[in-house]
Amino acid sequence: MKTGQKSTIHDIARKAGVSPSAVSAALNGSWEKRRLSRTTVERILEVARSENYSVNLQARGLRQARSGLAGMVLPDHENRYFAELSQCFAAEAHARGLCPAIVHAGRDAAEQLRSVESLIAYAVDLVMIAGASDPPALAQACRDAHVAHVFVDHPCAEAPSVVSDNLSGAAELTRRLLSDMAPPEAGDPAGWLYFLGGAAHLPASSERIRGFRAEAGAAGALFDAEAQIRACGYESHRAEAELAALCDRLGRLPAGLFVNSIGCFEGVVRFLGGLSEDAIAACTFGCFDYDPFGTLLRFPLRMVRQRADLIVAEAYRQLDAGASGPRLVRIAPDLL
Amino acid sequence: MKTGQKSTIHDIARKAGVSPSAVSAALNGSWEKRRLSRTTVERILEVARSENYSVNLQARGLRQARSGLAGMVLPDHENRYFAELSQCFAAEAHARGLCPAIVHAGRDAAEQLRSVESLIAYAVDLVMIAGASDPPALAQACRDAHVAHVFVDHPCAEAPSVVSDNLSGAAELTRRLLSDMAPPEAGDPAGWLYFLGGAAHLPASSERIRGFRAEAGAAGALFDAEAQIRACGYESHRAEAELAALCDRLGRLPAGLFVNSIGCFEGVVRFLGGLSEDAIAACTFGCFDYDPFGTLLRFPLRMVRQRADLIVAEAYRQLDAGASGPRLVRIAPDLL
DNA sequence: ATGAAAGCGCTAACAA
DNA sequence: TTGTTAGCGCTTTCAT
User: Fold this and answer.
1) Helix (H, G, I), strand (E, B) or coil at B215
2) Tally of CB atoms within 10 A around A38
3) Which residue among B54, B77, B146 places its CB closest to the CB of A77?
4) Which residues contact residue B254 at a Cβ distance below 8 angstroms, ignoring those fewer than 6 apart?
């Protein structure tokens, strides 16, 4: 067929000698319930195929007050972890017969809100929100529109949320780094373990800092929290500068470094580029994030890998359960 | 307001004491054309806001035979380059007032076709396809549905396509590596430059191989193409094994290595992990792909970075131009 | 076992 | 300057 217009169920109905409603039922699988004869259905499908008919999902969605779309909003894809989240989100949406609509909304709260509203306007069947800057506003919009929603990465205090267990993940990494180092002493700041990077006011970082504090404290390795915890932001250049300043003070690399996020770690590695093998070998490194090249550096590196797969799976589970009140689930990350 | 139901333009119309079409015009910006008075419009908008009304984009789309969705299908997001492509795609869609719907369809041709058909069923306004396994089939589907489409990364012989200039990018990298190495001689295979990784039957790899051959040939550095060009696939373990075998034959690392793709490069770095500094220093490395950690390794690495931004921009330009016949545009990548 | 008809929420002629 | 009306393509009672 090569008519200029797309064919509709009416065209198919006419050509197959049946009614539009029969075509509808044949095509959307509800024909058993409607008790159409198998032969009729086959005739209809045959005609549809030969006309290479394609349902108009907007019309169906309008009628059914749903769309078959699964919406996700996330800040960006440069971040490997977000990329994984979106990948898992899409795979699961697919498995449920939904079409994933993924929107990159950046870090700006207003922009994120617009994105959510836009998804709502398309009558998405669910929305998953990663890295929300203003969770309550987004939750509000979803609630008003009666759209199932769940937060990942950044939790929302008033809606189901699934995040990495940053607290225990950080504690575990801290413990491991301490056990790999010589026991630190109060009098020698160069022998201490330092926490570098992240933003203390964001939930993920603040939990990691708590984990670090708790574990280091318990091990008697927290001597001067102010000095040891340097949440200088997520930008690699800031981390690089911060580490440079630290080395300047200490006269060498510290004995241990807990780097918060892969972006900061880039800055760290850049700084290390100027140092000797021996200087580097004297420091024990850990990073709360994962990159395949991390295992391929010239010094050993412990990494914490967030389980995007488990997080997304649990998030869908929350949606399935119809959860809508506040509920925070933490997923343990892997220590590599 | 907290009625259970979502409000429609009829509700707004009633509350504002106007007709539904006036509400429609006020809300979608066509009120100037319809010459509604500014005061009426403001009253309508006020009511809409207080009811926190949200348009039903499915209804609008159905009526207008479009959706305001911009569809993209791509294999996956693990690949940094694809992630960048999708990021750029979404940003530009946004700028045009379209909502990006990104579908991860894997490498399977049938799955990709289903994804495209699904987007078409949602009446997307355009489709961008990255890494198509069977381009003609996808182009056919789009053409049948009268949907504007463009291919990136993998070109399609019968539709507008935008890809990296793999040929000249590879030639440039080859030239650079040769100029960084000692001049190779026919009699000493260990002194040659080798090409490692990729799949010769795929368009990108085959172009890169052509570029390598041409440049190496012109420089008198192609002695045994069969031995020097090892397109062993994109998998990191294959590349690792292939390099191991090569070193085994040569008794050392070759003088130069052109690694096709970042995935293969991971395999290479893994293999290098077992070698001494000196052994590694004797080889000149290049990679046709980009990763921020590439500059942070313990040996120098030339990288070719594909310009996802320019590729996507050009792809949109093709869509704007209404191009629909075959047309291949190549975008020069950067040599870092 | 099948058809007729109403209507999802919106827009765009056409009237007034 | 504004309202009325007829659909967009589909699903879904309700008839038959």
Assistant:
1) helix
2) 9
3) B77
4) B189, B190, B191, B192, B193, B194, B246, B247, B283
Looking at residue B277, what is its pLDDT? 82
Strand order of the β-sheet with B256-259 is B229-230, B193-196, B256-259, B284-287, B301-305, B334-335
Q: How far is the CA of B10 from the C1' of C8 (A)?
A: 13
Q: What is the average pLDDT value for chain B, to the nearest integer?
A: 92
* Secondary-structure percent of chain A, ordered helix, strand, coil, rounded to 5: 50, 15, 35
* Tokens (6 digits) for A35: 């008790």
Per domain, the residue ranges of chain B are 1-65, 67-158+308-331, 166-305
| Percent of residues, chain B, with pLDDT higher than 90 | 73
**Averaged over A274-278, what is the pLDDT?**
84
Contacts of A6 in chain B (CB under 8 A): 145-146
* Nearest one of A133, A186, A63, A18 to B59, comparing CA atoms: A63
Q: What angle, rounded to 10 degrees, do the helices at A20-28 and A9-16 form?
A: 110
Tell whether the model's pLDDT for residue B102 goes beyond 80.
yes
Give mean pLDDT, residues B180-189: 91
- Cα torsion at B128, B129, B130, B135 (round to 10°)? -150
Contacts of A62 in chain B (CB under 8 A): 56, 58-59, 62
Question: What homologous superfamily does CATH list for A166-305?
Answer: Response regulator (3.40.50.2300)
Number of other residues whose CB lies within 10 A of the CB of residue B292: 17
Q: What CATH code would you report for B1-65?
A: 1.10.260.40
Å between B101 CA and nearest CA of chain A: 4
* Distance separating alpha carbons of residues A277 and B109, to the nearest angstrom: 49
Measured distance CA(A253)–CA(A318) in Å, rounded: 45
Distances (CA, A) of A184 to A177, A222, A268: 11, 9, 22
Tell me the pLDDT band of A256, cut-offs 50, 70 and 90: very high
Overall fold of domain A67-158+308-331: Rossmann fold (3.40.50)
Partnered with residue B73 across adjacent β-strands are B103, B129
Chain C bases closer than 7 angstroms to a protein Cβ: 1-5, 7-13
Residue A234 in 3-state DSSP?
coil
Chain B CB contacts of A59 under 8 Å are: 62
Spacing of C-alpha B133 from chain mean position: 14
Q: Which of B88, B59, B29 is nearest to A60 (CA)?
A: B59
Distance A73 CA to D6 C1' (A): 38
Q: Distance (Å) from CA B241 to C1' D9? A: 56
Topology match between the domains B1-65 and B67-158+308-331:
no
Pick from A6, A99, A118: which is nearest to B118 by CB?
Answer: A99
Instruction: Spell out the residues 6+ positions from residue B172 whose beta carbon is closer than 8 angstroms to its own.
Output: B211, B215, B304, B335
Least confident of A231-245, B4-18, B111-125: B4-18
Going by C-alpha positions, the residue among B261, B194, B260, B271 that lies closest to residue B227 is B194
Q: What is the DSSP string of B151-200?
A: EESS--TTSEEEEE-HHHHHHHHHHHHHHHSPPP-TT-GGGSEEEE-B-T
